[in-house]
Amino acid sequence: MDTVDSILAAKYPAKAHARRVAEALTAHGDAGAIYLEAQKTRLIEDNDEAMPFRQRRPFFYLTGCLLPDASMAYDIKADRLTLFVPPIDPDSVIWSGLPLSTEEAAKLYDVDRVLYTTDVNATLASIASAQGGKTLVFAIEEQVSEGIEFKGFAETKLSILKDVIGDTRVVKDAYEVALLRKANDVSARAHIAAIKASKTATNEREVEAAFLSACVANGCREQSYHPIFAGGVNGATLHYVRNDESLTDAATQKRKGSLLIDAGCEYQTYCADITRVIPLAGRFPTETRHIYEIVLEMQKECIAVLKEGVRWDDVHALAHRIAIKGLVKLGILRGTEDELFEKRVSVAFFPHGLGHYLGMDTHDTGGYPNYDDKDQMFRYLRVRRNLPAGAVITVEPGIYFCRFIIDPVLKSPELGKYINTEVLERYWGVGGVRIEDNVHITKDGYENLTSAPKAIEEVESLAQ
User: Fold this and answer.
1) β-bridge mates for residue 438, sequence order
2) Where is each Aminopeptidase P N-terminal domain found (predicted)?
3) Among residues 226, 223, 250, 258, which one has the least CA distance to residue 240?
């Protein structure tokens, strides 16, 4: 079996991706060419330094190139992929050194030839001429520089390509899965470093610093998203990003019970997205452990049913049913499990979707969510389709004790009766528990790409 490093020793399969996109474009007419541009170098306002660079994902998908200010053209009829790199700018060389040459780029990327960006218009005109001027050229609106011409093509389509690439990206090839596994492996090391740092940390930011340090040290400078390090009740805020509060409870002057860490690094544009909850005093408080056990069961049972063709709505519903069963057992909810499910009472404790596609974007393309859904249980579900083999999806159930969400339910004449406020009172301090893994869907099942520890005994052992 090939290892991650052996797979990644080859070139990123840009040509195969271009062919897949081109095949999908034929449904929209006689597809002749694809044209894409890389992200431009932009200066920070009132500064002569460039803004942090993030490559445009459609461009990377068809080139594997992380250079700014580049572009590409794919001649669909001739199956010829051309990468265009900026020519040498003597003034820039003084400050930044020599850029990648055309010869170096040709060896590095899975393309047929490399030219300079000054050759774009002539190359496009040559493609159109060879095809008799009867084919379509596809580009992305507002991502075509001034001066680029599509002369000779029958029509320029600007509204289709981005969505076609987005749909194509859902199914990952072996190289992409290896990139995602690499991001997960480095992120797992960083999560372990964060757990160890939490033993002596006095502030959320100290644990974040340990996580970031481990990522950079292992070759991943970029993060997939702004990481979350939420101590105690801060874990009830789904996208908490302050990461600057004390890990000591101001009222009791005792160590907060737990720390929710939602963080993952990016490797060659591919993302990891991992959430763990760790104890800050070596062991989980009783109430936090209760909720952790439910959430872990939610995740385990949902992952177990994954395979090609599974409807994601059904997996999300399964997570809610397991949450209901656990919360009834604790006495927080009362009533029959079916009635609680039909009344959507569990949404007050598990308000977000079970997960989302993962790839070059943390919330990756192709999920087709319906944020106007009248059913509150599914409104924030980011994937609304059957899962194809090759997709990578996050499985991130959670249970939260957020007064802003739960209080309106408590005050509801119809729904308030289903919550036992006396038992609930003991759980407000839990904040929130979320456990998130990244899972590759296969024809007959799945493979979990995430190795960060999550078993209670293992996490507590590392935290002591």
Assistant:
1) 394
2) 12-145
3) 226
